[in-house]
Amino acid sequence: MLRHKGWRVNAKRVARIWRREGLKVPSKQPKRGRLWLNEGSCVRLRPEYPNHVWSYDFVEDRTHDGRKYRMLNIIDEFSRECLAIRINRKLKANDVIDALSDLFILRGIPTHIPSDNGPEFIAHNLRNWLSAVGAKTAYIMPGSPWENGYCESFNSKLRDELLNGEIFYTLKEAKIVIEGWRRHYNTIRPHSSLRYQPPAPEVIQWPAAQTRPATPTALASRPSMR
């Protein structure tokens, strides 16, 4: 982001400033091997194109009065775009269906949707609905959050960059601020996995050039249609 603003800096200098100011320096993630089954097949889905693999997960936080609220985060794993963050005091399987149905109408139906084994994700009505629309479910092994790494990484960024530094007094305030952060995450925030480009940068479409009415001279110079 500094480079986009014209600064000539490198990552080491920025990291030194972070440490000097007592800020949190992002730590490098340890390398993990592929997860293989006994017959040699890989259980980790690899997204190959947009709408190939979506993932979703819940994040919990509390408003200033101590009341809990939940966030349903839905990610396109190929583009890294956060498709939606549904926020409410309680979120159940029907709320997951409602959030997904809105996205299916706007973006189409993904091929796979991996998730953990939470009660909302393994509910019969959600699984039957996903099967009916043609989306395949994929559940990670219990106690293995790295199998849902894209969504877990997003959840960590959401907490580090927003939730840990904000106090929300009302649920409405939380919805507005978190939605603003989601838009910033998609359109402005650079991602190292995308060559430091945002997942869904905003595009400005200039209006078409206005056609001016023909002058009398131009009309007179046109050949007659007789």
Q: What portion of the residues fall into strands of 2 or more residues?
A: 5-15%
Could you tell me the number of beta strands? 5
Helicity, in percent? 25-40%
Cα(first) to Cα(last) distance is: 64 Å
Largest beta sheet, briefly? 3 strands, antiparallel
Provide the gyration radius in Å. 24 Å
Which class best fits the helix and strand makeup? alpha+beta
Mean pLDDT: 82
Shape: globular
Topology order in helix (H) and strand (E) letters: HEEEHEHEHHH
> Unreliable segments (pLDDT under 50, ≥5 consecutive)?
34-42
Helix count equals 6
Question: How would you write the strand order of the largest sheet?
Answer: 1-2-3
Overall description:
The chain has 226 residues and is α+β, with helices and mostly antiparallel strands. The chain contains 6 helices and 5 strands. Residues 34-42 have low confidence and may be disordered.
Quick structural gist:
The protein contains six helices and five strands, in the order αβββαβαβααα.
Summarize the topology.
Blueprint: H1 11-20, E1 54-62, E2 68-76, E3 82-88, H2 93-107, E4 112-115, H3 124-133, E5 136-139, H4 149-161, H5 171-187, H6 216-221
Parallel strand pairs: 4-5
Antiparallel strand pairs: 1-2, 2-3
Record keyword descriptors for this entry.
226 residues; alpha+beta
